[in-house]
From TrEMBL:
This is Amine oxidase domain-containing protein. The keyword Disulfide bond does not apply. Belongs to the flavin monoamine oxidase family. The keyword Coiled coil does not apply. It comes from the Eukaryota. Pfam families: Amino_oxidase (PF01593). Keywords: FAD, Flavoprotein, Oxidoreductase, Signal. Its cofactor is FAD. One of its GO terms (molecular function) is polyamine oxidase activity.
Amino acid sequence: ISAEDSNVDVIIIGAGMSGITAGKTLTANGITNFIILEATDKVGGRIRNSDFAGYEVELGANWVEGVNGEQLNPVWTLAQQVKLRTSLSDFSNLSSNVYTASGPLPPQTDADAITTAQNEYVINLSVNLTANGDDDISVLTAQRSYGSVPSTPVEMVLDYFLYDGEYAEPPRVSSLKNTQPGPTFKNFGEDLYFAADPRGFATIIKPVASYLQSKDGKYVDPRLKLEKVVNKIVYTKEGVTVSTEDGSTYTAKAAILTVSLGVLQSKLIDFQPDLPFWKLEAIFEFDMAIYTKIFLKFPYKFWRTGPGTEFFLYADDSRGYYPIWQHLERELPESNIIFVTVTDDESRKIEQQSNNETLAEIMEVLKSMFGPDIPEAEEILIPRWWSDRLYKGSFSNWPIGVTHHEFAQLQAPIDRLYFAGEHTSALYNGYIHGAYFSGIDAGKDEITGKINLRCTNQTGIRHTEATMAKESQQPKASSQLKVHLIRHAREKL
Ligand SMILES: Cc1cc2nc3c(=O)[nH]c(=O)nc-3n(C[C@H](O)[C@H](O)[C@H](O)COP(=O)(O)OP(=O)(O)OC[C@H]3O[C@@H](n4cnc5c(N)ncnc54)[C@H](O)[C@@H]3O)c2cc1C
């Protein structure tokens, strides 16, 4: 790879689902003089598989979430187009598969009933708050108002599965109105299909990326530039200049930036001029959550198999300690691979300790669940999304305290710099389909120039008059946060 200079109409930064979709949208609208700068050596971003013990496993996104509902999830359509190998996940028997430090428990029908009733209440409360135009509250606040907060290890792990297992942050952090009920499941359906395809889940991007491929599906188009880590963006009203770590410089009329929220929160990219205060505020207020799947390979299986056994839970005194387990007997039969999912602080801890330390913790948990005679694991695989400077987490989560006004600031362009990526999808942030829709929006905005026709308020947000009037009544960021942000901006100078 050598340094180069070039001048194009549009620069797309990032070749994940959103960047590839933005390129497709530009192409469909007659704009072909663009390039895509991608830091890694492949297309797909957070949809990425890896070889593990001779099998392909998914380090990032794994499920097509939201299927068999009123609307068709575009990711499901893509999965059908490439004939992706998937299996419907069956969570219905979960409360019969709970273990504690002293082994398996009988079916937890009482705890299950409490969790289900509480979740129904939480969703109804959210719908009512939204209908009445009331302020947002956290999911935990809603649980408190129900009258009981999950507190035993079994209640806590069922609660963890329901909330942290989906949003990767606990109920005290997540916004009630913006996560319950999740628009993904409400609009696209309740079903989740687990991808287990030897070609990798990222194969679903191929139909979107046809404009970059040869007939045999290889990424050959020179507009796709891999191993280009963007480290500087100079933006003005007239255009953008983007520099990469290898010394290349590209100029364009506009850029579409699709890097993750975690990357925006870091200092990887030097923006000149500094991003304005309203933009930084939105970037720092939204959350980049961490979700980690740890894969383990054993010489033989000691877990239960057969219908209704795929998911099992470990109920520890400490909420979120190696809680959600899944075997792959249907997807990778005879592989003897299982994986455990952790999130948030446990993920941070695990990313910082050695794989051997984590393995020792995991073996202790498994021995308490299944008895002391189980075999040692032969291999372990631990993705480190949070430590990776190109991601800094797994997906965004809508925290309590962020208004729709601030969310719109996260999406809003500045001069000729446009923002896309899953974290800019108001309905589907956190998901592949959110990234997909955001790529379409960014491509369209650039092409049609609609941005200039929309109402622009003082902070540069594109809004309709009605939403502006409504959102101007939303509470503003605390002054403490403002002090913090100003300090951050000064540090950059
Ligand atoms: C562990 C995990 C589990 C998940 N599970 C699911 C799931 O089951 N279902 C689901 O729908 N979603 C899931 N997601 C979320 C889903 O993967 C993302 O929402 C989606 O893939 C994001 O696409 P994107 O294009 O917005 O961002 P990305 O995929 O992050 O694409 C951005 C691209 O920008 C590149 N980049 C970053 N910095 C630079 C730079 N400085 N210069 C140039 N390039 C740069 C990155 O390498 C990346 O390729 C999961 C994610 C993770 C990590």
